[in-house]
Protein: Iron-sulfur cluster carrier protein
Organism: Edaphosphingomonas fennica
Amino acid sequence: MSDSDPFAAALDAIADPVSGRGLIASGRAAAPRVNAADATASVILDVTGLSGDDRAGLERAIRAKLIGLGGLRDVRIAMTAEKTARRLIVVGSGKGGVGKSTLAANLAVALKRLGAKVGLVDADIYGPSQARLLATEGRRPEAEGQRLLPIESPFGLPMLSMAHLVKPGQAIAWRGPMAGNALGQLIEADWGDVDTLILDLPPGTGDVQLSLIQKHKPAGAIIVSTPQDLALIDATRAIDLFRQATVPIIGLVENMAGYACPHCGEVSDPFGAGGAEAAAGALGVPFLGRVPLEIAIRKASDAGDPPAAHGEAIAQPFLDIAGALMGWLNAKAAPTF
């Protein structure tokens, strides 16, 4: 950069959101190309790894710095980006009603609290619930070109759900290919610097799971089950599906494990005890932990206030499971999507 180039100097006075260095010094941008004849400047800006907010902020800052300088009347900014590799972690179950979506939401929030660059996709196309769980009901995502821009939840977690794209209560009666295409739009959104996506799958082993495996192979799968035998039979089927597709099983979570009476403190086991841990041992997969059957979790979930976002003891099971997942991710290779 030449000291005599005021346009380059002005551009380099803007800090890169990642390194803190100037845009030119950090390699984010080259010196502007100025066309004196029409009083315009062109800037090529590398936005790889930047969130939508950071990109918009840089665009505003560049225009503010350059327009008017040396008589410039307009600045044309071309943004380029390398495709960010992302790991897809699916949260699945063999059947509905085992608390999979609540676990997925709290797992994603817990990962965010632990410092992960994480986003959440509500891949339960036919029964989306993450908008309620994460207090984003009634909001619609914007689009940039052909890509959706994720919605920022109140907990700092970017997310997308079919619930953001259809009217509340509207039934989604789509055949498999349409559901698969919709899921692809959610996954291929502009996730900025997110490197790990948590996907809340629909229950079972149907079209959505098969389409996902074929088009966006997950890096790993977490299976959720209650301790009871019937749920574990279906969880075993889900594990078998992912094993057939050579998707690593990160582990099994036992949900609704033990209920402590709020009056006397006695713990009972309406759905049995230890079944998921025993099944994990028999199947040769890691056991990631238990989440209790706790009315506070239910109330907070209905209110769009995930327990994992707070410091109470009820958040600890989710933080422990998130810690185990981070350990698994750190032991693996670089992101794959």
Observations:
- The CA atoms of residues 107 and 322 lie 6 Å apart.
- The chain has a mean pLDDT of 86.
- The radius of gyration is 23 Å.
- Residues 229-244 form the longest helix (16 residues).
